[in-house]
Amino acid sequence: MVNSKKILVVDDETSLVQLCQIVLENAGFEVRGAYNGKQALNLLKDEMPDLILLDVMMPGMNGIELCREIRNNHQTKRVYIVMYTADSSDSTRKYSMEAGANDLITKETPIYDLPVKISDFLVPQD
User: Fold this and answer.
1) Global model pTM greater than 0.90
2) Residue 89 CB partners (closer than 8 Å, separation 6+)
3) Which of 17, 18, 21, 50 is most buried, by the most CB atoms less than 10 A from its CB?
């Protein structure tokens, strides 16, 4: 059931994390936010989300590096990761998928469309 799904939004833009939280919570998701890779890793120690919405371009540990780190940890390697980026280049998609991301959404996607897009990713696979 979508209402019980947990999402971790990771982005260095505070206002974007907060906006995503509002939109996704209004759609019935339980949402936590992190503003950098280190904070995201600390949150993952406490609670495992069903999906991570992960910015690619962040200072310090970028989203590609964080995605690799998540995939290399046996406790977090199965979480669904969607890269959320302003960079729609083929190379960003390629590096994201090579790092272990399940999919990619560009920030050109209207924020109010996120709940529908994310719900599509959370449909149980046979």
Assistant:
1) yes
2) none
3) 17
The tens digit of pLDDT for each residue in 52-109 reads 999 999 999 999 999 999 999 999 999 999 999 999 899 999 999 999 999 999 999 9
Looking at the predicted structure, is the pLDDT value of residue 112 above 70? yes
Helix axes 37-46, 63-72, angle to 10 degrees: 30
**b/e string for 19-33 if b means 16 or more Cβ within 10 A?**
bbbebbeebebebbb
Give the C-alpha separation, 52 to 32, whole Å. Answer: 10
d(CA 62, CA 12): 10
Which domains are assigned to the chain? 2-121 (3.40.50.2300)
Q: What six digits make up the tokens of 82?
A: 């969607």
- The single residue listed with the structure tokens 């690619």 is 56
The confidence score (pLDDT) of residue 107 equals 94
DSSP string covering 65-100: HHHHHHHHSTTTTTSEEEEEES---HHHHHHHHHHT
- pLDDT above 80 for 126: no
